[in-house]
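ESCALATION

Customer reports they have been waiting on this structure for their group meeting. Please prioritize. Original submission:
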Amino acid sequence: MKITILGPAHPYRGGLASIMEIMARTFARRGDEVRIRTFTLQYPSLLFPGESQTVTTPPPADLHITRCVNTMNPFNWWRVGRAIRRERPDFVLLKYWTPFMAPCFGTIARLARRNGHTKILCQIDNVEPHEHHLTDRLFNRYFLRAVDGFVYMSEQVHRELEAYTAVPALFSPHPLFENFGERLERSEACVRLGLDPSLRYVLFFGLVRDYKGLDLLLAAWARLRRDGQTEGRRLIVAGEFYTSKEPYLQQIAREGLQDEVLLHDRFIPDAEVRCYFSAADFVVQPYKTATQSGVTQIAYQFCLPMVVTRVGGLPEIVPDGRVGYVCEPSPEGVAGAIVRMWEGDTLERFRENCVEERRRFSWEEMCSRITELYRLLAK
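Update from on-call: job pushed to the front of the queue and completed.
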């Protein structure tokens, strides 16, 4: 097939870019002709909370990536849409994660499909965003109704999608992030991160946003400290803050956690990800809202047990009592799950179960579902 992928890719950084590039490689291995169209401008600097949107590493030699999409320029949307219409790919595959992208993606999709041949497919992360704005429903409606079919990764997203459109939608769980490499020996990982190997570590990983519940985890850790259960243990918070850092620093100071919470408050490059997941005993995702999370799939890649809250699609991906614990999104719930993780041989059993569970998360399966969706629409 002839496929155009539209979304984040090199030089843009982060998990979304990794996803689009891995899917491009997977389709190419299957014999398809794949081109990626990515951004010249993804977010205006005023709307981007991080330090940088891009990386300085060389572009991947095995991918055909064209920077041509400006999310703020309607004239650009028309040019890109008409160019794709002339190229006549069998389908355009978009990644959708925020209504901010809706005007740009919706316009390009409407123009591209006018050739009567090209189908518009979307791998959708979220319908309703975690941080709401007045324009969300209007923007969602504009984009979602320009798409011929969807692949979703949690039932919550599917339910939200059905409120906007009735086009075909297939389920495929989020695959593993194999691009981060293999697990390191714990001692080596600690040395690379400057950690003391004699201590045990719990990991909070990824961009810090308020909905991810870091405040719940800090409150839970404070409870554990008061109960004398954090001796010889540390909490690592690894990721760039996409919200104000000050309330979290104040909470750490107020609870006296300065010596027990290790803040690695920066964007974690791909080459360092495996160090964190190899050094930690388990990862905690104390989210207040969620659909699915790429962090769970990184944890599966490194067979790292998980504590997740009972929100969104997280319990679908993390079987309670098998690879981790599912708890209520409260300091009490998170603290209780952390205590249980260190009991007996729990960590060892969960690591062994991760080896079995991770087999259901593959890029081949994701691309097969996308191909199945296309063939369903092309009949």
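Sent to customer with the following note: The chain is about 40% helix and 20% strand.
Escalation resolved.
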